[in-house]
Design brief:
The complex is a heterodimer of chains A (about 150) and B (about 500). Chain A has about 150 residues and is mainly alpha-helical. Helix content of chain A is about 70%, strand content about 5%. Chain A has a two-stranded antiparallel ribbon with strand order 1-2. The chains are: A mainly alpha (about 150), B mainly alpha (about 500).
Amino acid sequence: MKRYQIGSAVFLLLFGAIICWEARKLDMGRIVKPGPGFFPFWLGMAMVIVSLALIIQFRRAKAEGPTPGLWKGLRWEKILYTLSALLFYAFFLEFLGYIIATFLLMFFLFRAIEGQRWSVVIFGSIVTSLVTYSLFKLWLQVQLPVGLWGM
Amino acid sequence: MDFLGGMLYGFSVSLEPGNLFACFMGVFIGTLIGVLPGIGPVATMSILLPVSFKMTATSAIIMMAGIFYGAMYGGSITSILVNIPGEAASVVTCLDGYQMARKGRAGPALGISAFGSFIAGSMGVVGIMVLAPPLAAMALKFGPPEIFGILILSFTMVTYLAGRSKLKAVAMAILGLILGTVGLDPIVVTPRFAYGSVTLMDGIGLAPLVMGLFGISEVFLNIEQKIKQEVFKADIKGLLPNKQDWKNSAWPITRGSLLGFFLGILPGIGAIIPTFISYGLEKKISKHPEKFGTGVIEGVAAPESANNAATAGCMVPLLTLGIPPNVVMAVLLGAFLTHGVQPGPLLVKEHPEIFWGVITSMYTGNAMLLVLNLPLIGLWVRLLKVPYGILFPLILLFCLIGVYSVAGNSWDIVIMLVFAILGYLMKKFEYEPAPLVLAFVLGRMAEESVRQSLVLSRGDLLIFFKHPISCATMIIAFILIFSPLIMPLLKKARRRSEGGGG
């Protein structure tokens, strides 16, 4: 765990440093009248200081024996599949339209992640896309994209 | 408007058919997601934000509030029956609730948690009615330094109350503040960290942030491990607690309600911490502390009352100061703002229908939960049997619909996914999301109040110590910040003096 923890703090440190660097490009103003860069700059500085303190704290912590992998025995590849499907949905939602994009997404998620029966997959994805469309778009009048074929 | 007049007026608003329906939908959905593991009130309220666009502001807020306290009811059902808290605020209920169910007393456990919640919710509503108007009157005199003082105190409390590492909580709060600066500068309207993106120019939305951190990341954590679903096959009969149960629970309910309400008002506490404190308190003052954890009814009654009273308590700072004390209230603030209503000291005067309507709706909502949920428990139990493989695509879809329809912008989905990954990693590396979200929401307010204060004082940083209220909050904040350093020294000094004296 220790190594991962230090890694996370280094990430925060870099993030803070980048924020400082970028904030300097904005108008800092003076203490009498602080500008748009004032707040982000000092927040970036604070982040740098806190993450340094975190690194020191983690380094001084005793190692609790051999570190177990954070993803050991877990099905992390399922997350990658899901994430890719959601990204695909984000990029093609407006092109395909709500019903088709949702049908494809549900089809994939029902089948590929937990492996539902085919009958459940097909029936489930058709029903969810149509029911949510009627519920949100037709009844609650929430804006959802129509897309390619006007669906 | 005086107290009684306000209450009557409030009921006339909250009992209008539209508002009554909104209240019903709120508590119904709240109980539903309280029962379902893996989706909580925060994500749900954000999902329903776009749905509420078409409602009046009053109905929208009534529904949102209903989701929150409804979830408290739902959470206790799963804690008692399956030993899985549907909500974090029901974790403590597992200890004695599940043991009661194993002894065949699931009915009274569910019953007392429903009655206790109802009593606590009602007491909380009375508490708001008494406390809020004078607080709002006082808050009218607050200027930027006072607001900043209260915000600083909120940040400190949130990080102080954080679980394992306070330093990590501080880092998350700073991260939240930084994320809050994305978009147009609040005073001179210069774009910051937008890099030419129109979506980022508007700032990062609360909905994608919250749904990513709380909704989607939770799904990720669940699908990477095989979830075992088991429902305790309890025969639930006789939901009514008997006379002895009532006798044992009367004081725990009262104490839990008071504790929950007053703790709920404080920044950074929310509905979870009071449950732990009230359980601890009951155990401490009990005549038979050793029986706690084996299925005593006090162990269910007290924390369940505390979490419902806390949902009422944390409305107070939002309604009177416009400052959300926890993440759920931050989302509720978002709902207020999308309807163009600024909660705060002027709310009672400018929108009495919202102020009194929402408060009294919490009373009718609690009554509905009591009447509806006791008969519906069978339905909720059946819901627990829906396999996660079917549930999680639906949770994801609701998040997608929710986040897309806020602005009809698919980039918001991408932002949500970024925060989903962040939230997932934060869980892995043991960083808490609550300080991040609260700081994100309060950040804008904090920046405005600092900059306005400095303009007011011509750059004198001591302005925060020259106004009595901000000075007091600053001092409390400093004490909290340095207490982890000072306390061990004090203890050491005391030990030394005791050792020297004896």
